[in-house]
Amino acid sequence: MDFNYSEEQQMLADSLRRFIDTEYTFDKRRKSARGGGSLNRATWAQLAEMGVLGLTVPGEYGGFGESAASQLVVQRELGRGLVLEPVTPTAVMATAVLSAYGSDAQKNDWLPAIAAGERVVTLAYLEPTTRYRPETARASAERKGDGYVLNGNKSLAWHGEAADAFLLTARVCGSNELALFLVPGNAAGLTVHGYPTMDSLRAADLALQNVIVDASAMIGNAADGLPALLHGIDHGIAALCAEAAGAMEKLIEITAEYLRTRQQFGKPLAVFQALQHRMADMLVQKELALSMAYVAAQALDETDPAQRRRMLSAAKVTVAKAGRLVGQQAVQLHGGMGMTDELEVGDYFKRLTMIDPLLGDSDFHVQRYGEVMAA
C-alpha cells in the first residue's frame, strides 16, 4: 500500500481541512454538542457533497469506490476537527458490511442513500452482558411466517438516535447462528433511548419487543452474521486509529502555540528545556500512532483473518496508549487552564480517552493479539 498522498487524496485532505477551519469551527461544534445532537443535517449534507460519505461506496451505487488508504486521509482530517457527525459508523462500518455482505436489494436501497447523505445506518451489537464479545449476544430472532420476530436489548449503539436503520445482531432460535438484520429505526416495537457520552458524542440503548422484520432484512444468511459484523468492526478500528492520529496532530499544534505565547519569568514557556522534552515525547507518540494507523489501513487488505486481526489489535492498543499520553501531557502543559472548559484542549483529551474503549479496549485487544500469536 502506497501511503504517499495521491493528487486526488491531497485535494480531498485540503478541502476537508478548509471546511473544518472555516465552517466547522470549534464554537459551532461545541454549540451542536451542547444542543443535544451529534448530527447536524446541514453539515452531513456538506460532507456528502465533498464525497466523504460515498468515499468507499462502490461506483455502481453512487460512490467513489476508494480504498482504505483514502479513508485514512479522510479520518485523519476529521480527527483534527473532532467532527461529531457519524461518519465512522455509517460511511465506514455500515458501508463495509453492506458492500461485502448485503443483498442486491439492500445495496440498491441503502448504499446510494448513504453516499448522498440521505440516510444514517449504525451498528447495534453490544449488550449489557456481552462486553466486547458479540458472539455472546442474547437478543433472539424467532422465525415466524415469512419473517422474524426480534426480542432483546442492545446498548451503546453509536449515534443510535440519529439512525434511520440499525445493523442489529440476534441469535436465531433453534440454532446457534448469530444473524445480522437491517432493522428500520422506526420499526414497531423498537424503543431507542439516547444519551450523551463523555466526548460530546451520542449513544443509545435499544429495547426490542416483538419487532417484526421480513426475511429479506437479514444480511446474507444466518451464518454470515458474525463474519459480517466483524468485517464492519475491522474497518471501524482502522478509521478510529486514523482519527486519533489526526486529533493528536492538532492537539500538539494547539499546545505548541500555547507554549510559544504563554509567558513565565519574562520568557515564553517554549524556551524551557523540560517542556521541550515533553513536547518531543508527544510528537514521537503521534508519529507512532500515525504509523500504526497505516498498519491498520493496510490490514484491511490482508486476506488471512488471523493476520488482519493481529495487525488491527496491535494498532488499536498502540494508538490508544499514545492518545492517552498526548492528551494528558497537553492538559498538563496548559496548566490550570487545561482543566477548564474554556479551552478546546479538554475536548481533544476526552475524545482521545474514549478512543480506547470504542470497538474493544486495550485489555481486549492485547488478549486477542495473544490468542492469535498463540495459535
UniProtKB/TrEMBL annotation:
Domain annotation Acyl-CoA dehydrogenase/oxidase C-terminal: ranges: 224-369
Pfam family, one: Acyl-CoA_dh_M
Single GO molecular function: acyl-CoA dehydrogenase activity
Residues covered by the Acyl-CoA dehydrogenase/oxidase N-terminal domain: 6-118
Swiss-Prot/TrEMBL keywords: FAD, Flavoprotein, Oxidoreductase
Span of domain Acyl-CoA oxidase/dehydrogenase middle: 127-210
InterPro entries: Acyl-CoA_Oxase/DH_mid-dom, Acyl-CoA_Oxase/DH_mid-dom_sf, AcylCo_DH-like_C, AcylCo_DH/oxidase_C, AcylCoA_DH/ox_N, AcylCoA_DH/ox_N_sf, AcylCoA_DH/oxidase_NM_dom_sf
Cofactor: FAD
Domain of life: Bacteria
Family statement: Belongs to the acyl-CoA dehydrogenase family.
The protein, known as: Acyl-CoA dehydrogenase family protein
Native source organism of the sequence: Cupriavidus basilensis
